[in-house]
Give the backbone structure.
Amino acid sequence: MGMTKKVPAYVTGVSSFCPGCGHGIVVRLIAEVVEEMGLKQYDAICALAVGCCCLVNSLMTIDRIGCPHGRAAAGASGIKRCRPDKLVFTYQGDGDAIAIGFSETVYAAQRNEKITSIIINNNVYGMTGGQASPTTLVGQKTSTTPSGRALETNGPPVDIMKHLVQFDSVAYLARGSVHDAKNVMATKKYLRKAFDIQMAEGGYGCVEILSPCPTNWHMVPKDALAWIAAEVINSYPLGEIKIGGEPK
């Protein structure tokens, strides 16, 4: 039998996420990175968004604060200005960060706040019933687009990286995924690099992570992972997008 890696110190091991959801994987990656950086749980502060991200409250023991819907980047900015020695990051869904919180996300980057935005992109509003979000794919069926997102009425999906990359001061941008083991490990590297850059006072960073939502995609978990590989990454290409102010 192979050895099972122990649960990171800053994860309780109790999850309320739906079966097959990618949030649990991302939370574990964050906890592993913080632990591997040698930080204590009180050396890191998470600004939690509204939505499925709220469920992290019972899963992660890193210091955290709940923010009003869409305001995680603003909350994190204030925390970092007060406690510049701490690792400060947001944990948000695509609806929170790219819909109601779009301006907060963009202006945190524009101001070069020394925080890291972590955006979980599952193409829908997960907690409230699977409604279409800004990142819903063209043709994707949701509870508010039962016939599929239509380009002529809903417009194209919003690629947040294309908005953030325009700011010269932004230090790091990357998009990862958790649909297979290779990409889970790549995403962990992106998180570590973003956190290292922040702690070196390198500036604003954002890691967007593609994640399955089997419940609201109406798929079994295996099919949800395959759909990311076959469809989602075509609209949201993976990889590092900007490092140290230079687009990749």
Observations:
- The chain has one domain: 23-247.
